[in-house]
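To the team - glutathione complex, inputs and output below.
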Amino acid sequence: MRLFGTPGSPFVRKVRIVLEEKRIPHEYIVEHGSAPGSRVPQFNPLGKIPVLVLDGGRAIYDSSVIVEYLDGVSGEPRLIPAEFEPRIEVKRWEALGDGIAEATVAISHEYREPKDKQRSAAWFERQRLKVDRGLAVMAKDLGAREFCFGERFSLADIATVYALGYLDYALPEVEWRGAHPDLARFAERMAKRDSCARTVQT
Ligand SMILES: N[C@@H](CCC(=O)N[C@@H](CS)C(=O)NCC(=O)O)C(=O)O
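Output:
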């Protein structure tokens, strides 16, 4: 199978951590959907990365569906619980990670526009609130526990890793560590994990 993506994308990192955790053989192709001649739109009509292309040519997107596919077709370690309630809870963490990452992507892309073309201060404030409120809920729900959900590493932990990692990468001025020491402690521990260390955005 082939994964199309770029190292800067938090959603691609999500999938790469899952591939590493589950040791699934694959080819990682660094390609953005809007690059001239990109093959991404041919596999994902939305032109977005990540997109996973199976050996027979079947394409899977977006990152949530890819992760569910990878977890379903391979064995241990299971990253999404099979049982209904735990499954919903882990997927809620994923939604939170995605939402924080989406708001961070939106802010950092907007910063690249010339000052006079940028959106209003109210728009920036709305995006920033998504990040701040999202982090506060992550911190509260994690508390002093070792893992975001249950007693073992899961997609909930991965969601927190790519959301916080992308924040550091794209908006380093957001000082979340001081406000959320539990998240800081968690991030420090996760940074030592192979799958997280190998996919870190620099
Ligand atoms: N919900 C999608 C989001 C993917 C996404 O927004 N990818 C960005 C890169 S971070 C992209 O390809 N953007 C190009 C575009 O929107 O045209 C997922 O989880 O895969």
